[in-house]
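Structure catalogue
Derive tokens from sequence
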Amino acid sequence: MSPLSSIPSARLTADWPVSRIDTTPGLPPVAAPATAPNQPATPAGDPFGQWLQRFVAEVNQHQQAAAQTVQALQQGEPVPLHQAVIAMEEASVSFQLMVEVRNKLLEAYQELMRLQI
């Protein structure tokens, strides 16, 4: 189970009620969106979700590379010790960064849930 799986998906903008706003004379009134009612809007993509997937994949690659380097070192292959240590540190730092990003996202979500509407 992913730590972010407990976050509910955001409402689509078509779900929000749209009402006419009376403005000052000379300015046109705000109209409803062009989409038909009760028709879900097609998402243009999820750039944040894609970024998050790439980020987790990169952390996973660092972890796998570190594991392979350590395994090669343990099997007696000609791997310099400093390369193994550097690979392990890169994996550790990238994992710590991912955990901190997750913590900040959860903190932001909790802050949004505390907002009164």
